[in-house]
Request: fold
Amino acid sequence: MQPEPSKRDELYPLAVHVARKLGESSVSFLQRRLMIGFQRAQQLVKRMRREGVVERK
Reply:
């Protein structure tokens, strides 16, 4: 069984690092910092929330 796409996203560790270091985890922030599209940024933020890395504001 393959993991869901967001589980194997190679940008996830970088997104977590950026969110923790800079204290920001909004979709638009990750879009700008990582130069990615809305949907991918949204998936990363949802995963970080689901895994308890960041909290909803």
Observations:
- The radius of gyration is 11 Å.
- The chain has a mean pLDDT of 88.
- Residues 38-50 form the longest helix (13 residues).
- The helical segments are 12-22, 27-34, 38-50.
